[in-house]
Design a protein that fits this description.
Elements lengths: L1 E8 L8 E8 L4 E5 L6 H8 L7 E6 L15 E4 L11 H9 L10 H7 L16 H13 L5 E5 L7 H16 L3 E6 L2 H7 L2 E6 L2 E6 L1 H7 L4 E8 L2 E8 L13 E7 L4 H9 L6
Parallel strand pairs: 3-7, 3-8, 5-6, 6-7
Antiparallel strand pairs: 1-2, 1-4, 8-9, 10-11, 10-12
Helix pairs in contact: 2-4
The structure holds adenosine-5'-triphosphate.
GO molecular function: ATP binding
Keywords: ATP-binding, Nucleotide-binding, Transport
Organism: Blautia celeris
Amino acid sequence: MIDVKNLRFSYKKGHETLRGLTFAVDDGEIFGFLGPNGSGKSTTQKILTGILGGYCGEALLFGQKPDAHPMDFRSQIGVLFEFPYLYTNLSALDNLNYFASFYPAGRRRNAAELLEMLEFKKEFLRKPVSSYSKGMRQRVSMARALIHNPRLLFLDEPTSGLDPSGAVLFRKIIEEERRKGTTVFLTTHNMLDADLLCDRVAFIADGEINALDTPQKLKEQKNSNMAEVTYLYENKRCTVSVELSRLSRVFPFPHDKIISIHTKEPTLEDIFIQYTGKGLIS
Ligand SMILES: Nc1ncnc2c1ncn2[C@@H]1O[C@H](COP(=O)(O)OP(=O)(O)OP(=O)(O)O)[C@@H](O)[C@H]1O
């Protein structure tokens, strides 16, 4: 679906923003592109969606160059941008009907039904976007990305600005899209989204990919094999980290009562820091 080989890009001479990215995204996959601010995520997405040209190396979507603008290229991709590009003086319905009009009638989804699926407040359907909260604008932007049933979805920070139940709903909708066979390129620094949704993730830092695998494999590779044990000893509550191998027979410390044992599994963010030496929010 997406094939990127040795992709390089510079905004100004002498400084490379993308320094030789190579990766492939399979049909029907949710592929996470994770990195801290300024690492090159949006630049990569802009190249793949045909907004930015002038790159070196190879970038192919459906076997085509994204900046060659073949007639049907844009109708096959849906994009949720980091910042909502909506007409703020128009309502949600007018925005969506306008964007839908760019696509063949056979591909268009019903704007009102899409907004209902996204739990958009009915009373705001005909009010201007300028009166919407951040979460409402995000819902309209998601509807805009889905309005023409794209084969490939680019989602840049889809759950940003949403409350926890909105984020759960968006994750459900993204999974539903995947079930229908849509491929998803998810750009984010939200670890929970990446861990819950992605089949594979790539870690990008300073314009380079440092690791690429399934979230589970990445976590297993760097598994600390440690357990955190909480116990009572001489009426005092204590917590220690112990290697799992040392727990196989007896607890290697004096205790009166074990209260809990938890294996210390690294989070995707721990792994990211181990690979790149940086946190995801810098
Ligand atoms: N139009 C531009 N002109 C010059 N430099 C730019 C431009 N857009 C981005 N950059 C620079 O390129 C680098 C990568 O930016 P990019 O927006 O791709 O990062 P990002 O990983 O998407 O960050 P964020 O998480 O903040 O969105 C940054 O150093 C940024 O300042």
